[in-house]
Amino acid sequence: MKQQENNIPLCAKCSLESNGIFRNLTSEETDLLNFEKDFRQYKRGDILYREGNRISGFFCINNGIIKVFKTGFDGKEQIIRFARKGDIIAYRSVLSNELACTSAKVIEDCNVCFIPSEILISFIKTNSTFALDLIKLACHELGEANSFITDIAQKTVRERLAEILLLLVNDFGLDNEKYLKISLTREELANIVGTATESVIRLLSEFKADKLVELTGRKIKILDIKGLEKISNVYN
User: Fold this and answer.
1) Which residue range is the domain that position 119 belongs to?
2) Is the pLDDT of residue 15 over 90?
3) Together in a domain, 202 and 118
4) Whole-angstrom Cα distance, residue 26 to residue 12?
5) Could you tell me where the beta strands, DSSP code E, fall in 36-76?
6) Contacts for 27-33: CB closer than 8 Å, 24+ residues apart
7) Which CATH number is 187's domain given?
8) How does the average pLDDT of the chain come out, rounded?
9) What is the pLDDT of residues 64-93, one digit of tens each?
């Protein structure tokens, strides 16, 4: 990790491009944010923060991809979400003044801005539009968590894997050859679905045999979205 002053992104430009949480700040608040933030660069595999630690601020993603996860008693990860350009992470620990309830690890080289806790609290107190946007964001993430819990309880692993592939298509898109624009290990996929790595490997082979996907190393080509939708019961 190192800083490069010339590459520090301007918050107003970044928020406009990503429609991020800071888009409704005043010019004075944006200037304060630019002055107080700490620009950081991370490589794949780097840890931003660990579950159980106290953190003095939160992170806004300028580019790259970060996985946010919890660790079980057996050391196995459960991936909660992926953060990318315009997203913020660790803000709930700031709001609750509690230890970090998740960990964050880089899966694609990224630039982030670390923002001190007092800046977030100040904006909430002085900017009602920003505060409402933050409440909506927290509610949206809570809704996603509730949906995930329902899926774990009611869907088979095969259904969940198909749904996760569709969500990755929706969140990250496909390149010109129909490959997912995010590269995940089989273990990481299993940690999203909530199952063993061996189960994901077996099911991906079945999906390949059924001509739903093609596999090239970590890369997954999506061949039949309608077929995945049928398996996932996503619209039922």
Assistant:
1) 5-152
2) no
3) no
4) 10
5) 38-42, 47-49, 57-71
6) 29/123, 29/126, 29/127, 29/130, 32/119, 33/115, 33/119
7) 1.10.10.10
8) 90
9) 999 999 988 777 888 999 999 999 999 999
Residues 142 and 161 in one domain: no
* 118 & 181 share domain: no
Residues 6+ apart with CB under 8 A from 194: 78, 152, 160
| Contact between residue 89 and residue 58 where contact means Cβ atoms under 8 Å apart | yes
What is the domain-level CATH number for residue 104? 2.60.120.10
pLDDT at 199 over 90: yes
Looking at this protein, which amino acid is placed at residue 208?
Answer: K
The CA-atom distances, in angstroms, between 225 and each of 18, 165, 228 are: 26, 9, 5
Determine the residue type at 90. A
**What percentage of the chain reaches a pLDDT higher than 90?**
74
CA distance 48 to 208: 35
**Which structure tokens are listed for 88?**
């913020």
Determine the length of the chain. 236
Structure tokens at 103: 């960990």
**What is the tally of structural domains in the chain?**
2
Ramachandran sector of residue 173 (left: φ over 0; alpha: ψ -120 to 50; beta: rest): left
Q: Which of 91, 117, 152 is the last residue of a domain?
A: 152
Q: Which of 97, 123, 152 corresponds to the end of one domain?
A: 152
- Give me 156's structure tokens: 């088979």
